[in-house]
Structure formats: C-alpha cells, structure tokens
Amino acid sequence: NYTTTTCGQENVTPAELLSPERMERFNELSRKLVDVAHQHHLPIGLLETNSASCGGMAGVSDGFASAVWGLDYMFNVAKVGYDHINFHFSYRKGGSAYNPVQTFGWKVGKEEHYKNVTEPLYYAMYMFARNASGEHLLPASITTKSNITSFATTACPSCAVHVFVINEDEKASGPVDVHISGKVGTASVLMLKAPSLHSLAADVRYGGQQFDTDGNIGAPQTSSILPGSNGDYRFTLPNASAAVLSISR
User: Fold this and answer.
1) Of 136, 166, 181, which Cα lies nearest the Cα of 64?
2) Which residue from 174, 225, 167 is spatially nearest to 194, judged by alpha carbons?
3) In Å, how far from its chain's centre is CA 249?
4) What's the rounded Cα separation, in Å, for the pair 153 and 126?
5) How far is C-alpha 147 from the chain's CA centre?
6) Cα(218)–Cα(26) distance, rounded to whole angstroms?
7) Beta strands 205-206 and 148-154: pairing type?
8) Within its chain, how far is the Cα of 5 from the centroid?
9) Cα separation, 160 vs 153, whole angstroms
C-alpha cells in the first residue's frame, strides 16, 4: 500500500498525504484483509508501503509531513490488526524521496566518501520504536476540530502509559489537556518537531536532538509535568509536531 502516488508525474501535497479520509479508506480495506487472516489463524504484515509510490514526492515524502504521517500510519496499522510493517527503501537512480535514510557519496581523488542523512520518516519510526513498540494499545480518543490524532500504549497494568498526540494540521497549535483514568503520578513530555510540515531533515528535532551521519543521537530532552487540580496534564503542542506524554502509574 502507498498512501498517494507520483506515478505519471502526479504531484502530492502535504494535505493529500495527511488526509484523514485517505487513512480511513486504508483502514476499511485493511480490516477486511486482517479479518481473513485471523479467520485462518495467520499473522498478516504490510510488507511494502510508504507515502507515495514511484519514488515519493520531493518536499513531502522527505519533509516533516512524512514524519507525522508515518507516526499516525504506524498506529493505525497496529490498531487495525497488522503484525508488522516494512517501509519501502528504493535504490532508484537519484534516490527516492521516501527513503527513511539517504546515503550520499562522492570521490576525492581515488577515495570514496559517504554521508548518511536521517530523514523525517526515520525519526517517526524511531519515536514509535522507542516509546510504543511491543506495548499494548489502550483506548484513546480526542476532541478537536483540527487534524490531530491521539493514541495510548502501555507494557503492563502497572507500567507507564504513553500518550501520543500527533499534529497533522497545517494551521493548528495550542494547549492540549490529557485525561487518564486511574491513579497517576508525574509525567514527562518529549517532542518531535520542525518549523513546518515542509521542513527537511536539517530542521527536525527529536527531544532537541538530531542523528549524526553514523546513526548516533544524544539523550532526548523532556519536560516534567505535574497533573492539575482536576488530574489532567497540560502541555503546548506546536504546529508540525508530535508529542509523547509518559505518565507513571
């Protein structure tokens, strides 16, 4: 599955990639496929997928829009019942805009030099892997008129709860209130953000940090939050961002 396409020189905008209607159509089809697999007691994986077929859309598939799309997409893939997901990586001439990591090479005399660039989509994959992979999905809902989604996970009944709030709206930003049932403690919030949905890899920050060319990244910065008098947690969600609120039981 590819959410959009650039085949036939089609153009893709961030709004098209982030369309809630496109995601729901994907979920409707996926539920039918997952149901058949489960009827036969078989696992089912999404083995080739990405933002736009035929190599992706420059400025979109390698822009920050792909990060918020990718994070929301992985949660929908998990929620609908797939067991795993493989983002496609292409070696086409000139590279593919949707590659999670791009490698650039050049020669100095007889020496070959290479540089790896971590693209926005990889940051989303990293955020999911570090904070949600292997955990159980919890019921989560959000009240908003903007294109913002939410998901929650935990590893066990006494473990921390991770609440993800993903801003796919080109204009929305502001305070977010998170309510969780049961006894809760202190929380910390970690942000994946960029100046805009069009921002490229150089402007993406995961907890204020970036990957270097060898794939290393520093310890992410988080902000501590105490629950208010009503037990809710409040933080500010910028435009072009995704937040994970980690709440101790």
Assistant:
1) 166
2) 167
3) 25
4) 16
5) 14
6) 35
7) unpaired
8) 19
9) 9
The residue to which tokens 């305070």 are assigned? 175
Q: Choose among 13, 63, 62: nearest CA to 5.
A: 13
Q: What does the longest C-alpha to C-alpha distance in the chain come to? A: 67
* Cα gap 193→181, rounded to integer Å: 28
Contact present, 77 and 46 (Cβ < 8 Å)? yes
Q: Report the predicted TM-score, pTM, of the whole model to 2 decimal places.
A: 0.95
> Per the structure block, which two tokens stand in for 191?
């942000």
Could you report the per-residue pLDDT of 158-181, keeping only the tens digit for each?
A: 899 999 999 999 999 999 999 988
The Cα–Cα gap between 44 and 36 comes to: 9
- pLDDT tens column, 116-149: 999 999 999 999 999 999 999 999 999 999 999 9
Tens digits of pLDDT across the chain (249 residues): 999 999 999 999 999 999 999 999 999 999 999 999 999 999 999 999 999 999 999 999 999 999 999 999 999 999 999 999 999 999 877 679 999 999 988 999 999 999 999 999 999 999 999 999 999 999 999 999 999 999 999 999 889 999 999 999 999 999 999 998 877 788 999 999 999 999 999 999 999 999 999 999 999 999 999 998 888 999 999 999 999 999 987
Q: Contacts from 128-136 at CB under 8 Å and sequence distance 24+? A: 128/71, 128/74, 128/75, 131/162, 131/164, 131/190, 131/244, 131/246, 132/74, 132/75, 132/78, 132/162, 132/164, 132/244, 135/162
